[in-house]
Specification:
By secondary structure, the protein is α/β, with parallel strands linked by helices. The chain contains 11 helices and 9 strands. Bound molecules: S-adenosylmethionine (SAM). The site of S-adenosylmethionine has 22 residues, from helix 7, strand 4 and helix 9.
Length: about 280
């Protein structure tokens, strides 16, 4: 019986799905790297591999995100396992990590909290780049927390503690030097929720169910009670939410309030520092 080669499989799949999607699915089926695929385009798929590949192509054709089909997504050059219980980490979220790493000293301990950790992408990336930091990551979804724990283990991030909690609820009186969050911030009636990958992601990871600001409002209003004097809050938000985020931060008595654009030039992260605004008081 004729066995299909990598090149033939890609050629057939490209009639139904995009080039890079087809390539990632073949890599997943054969468990090989991109470089291997290029060098071995004439490798044959056995019948079981060919059937599995065809099934994945059909599922992708019907819209399922590639990350869920292959069970992983790269973020900040780290490989995160993902399931439909977690948001697929986005490239724009790397800005939040960059800004967090700028504020976390490499040479001394620092307490960091990640609210709504999902796959653990933010918390674990920070942990890998700042081994002296002590990181707590929370999510109210036990299924998401389980994925984050799996990633912490698989990426050997032993300075991250993952907790199932409704925002700050399980943290008692704990205070942190830095609080970061990429909370749900899409408005309930945003048409993007019915398009592309978003249709398959957990609704509660995407939208708080109102105009998109409920979680941001709650986190900004509650964060001071969990920050040390001079500690900072950094929030990812929607393309049109920077002004309102800065207003909320200022009203909650944060100082040094700012917004920063992502690589596409869209204001993506806003933040501020708790308490006295003198340079000496700013810990990070
Ligand atoms: C936009 S996703 C971000 C996931 C991950 N941090 C990332 O950047 O890829 C928001 C996350 O917040 C979690 N979340 C929503 N409401 C929450 C709440 N009340 N308490 C804790 N986590 C919550 C969701 O389960 C989801 O994992």
């Amino acid at each position: 019986m004729h066995q299909i080669t990598v090149l033939e499989a890609l050629h057939q799949a490209r009639r139904e799905i995009g080039d890079s999607d087809a390539r990632m699915l073949v890599q997943h089926v054969l468990k090989v790297s991109h470089a291997h695929l290029i060098a071995h385009a004439d490798q044959e798929l056995n019948p079981e591999q060919a059937r599995y590949f065809q099934l994945l192509v059909v599922r992708r054709f019907h819209g399922e995100p590639v990350a869920y089909l292959i069970g992983s997504r790269e973020f900040y050059s780290l490989d995160f396992k993902v399931t439909p219980a977690v948001l697929i980490p986005r490239p724009e979220t790397e800005l939040l990590v960059d800004l967090a790493l700028e504020r976390i000293p490499a040479n001394r301990p620092c307490k960091v909290l990640d609210l709504g950790t999902g796959s653990g992408a933010i918390a674990i990336t920070i942990a890998k780049h700042r081994p002296l930091a002590d990181i707590v990551a929370v999510d109210f979804s036990a299924a998401a927390a389980a994925v984050a724990k799996m990633n912490a283990e698989h990426l050997n991030a032993d300075n991250v503690r993952i907790i199932t909690s409704d925002w700050f609820h399980e943290l008692a009186e704990q205070r942190f030097d830095l609080v970061v969050s990429n909370p749900p911030y899409i408005a309930e009636d945003d048409p993007h929720l019915t398009q592309g990958d978003l249709r398959f992601e957990p609704r509660k990871a995407l939208t708080p169910g109102d105009n998109g600001l409920e979680c941001i409002r709650f986190i900004v209003a509650s964060a001071c009670a969990h920050l040390v004097e001079g500690g900072a809050l950094l929030l990812e938000h929607g393309y049109n939410q920077a002004d309102v985020c800065r207003q909320l931060l200022s009203r909650a008595d944060f100082g040094r309030v700012f917004s920063r654009p992502d690589l596409a030039g869209i204001m993506r992260v806003s933040g501020g520092v708790r308490g006295s605004f003198s340079r000496e008081a700013v810990r990070i």
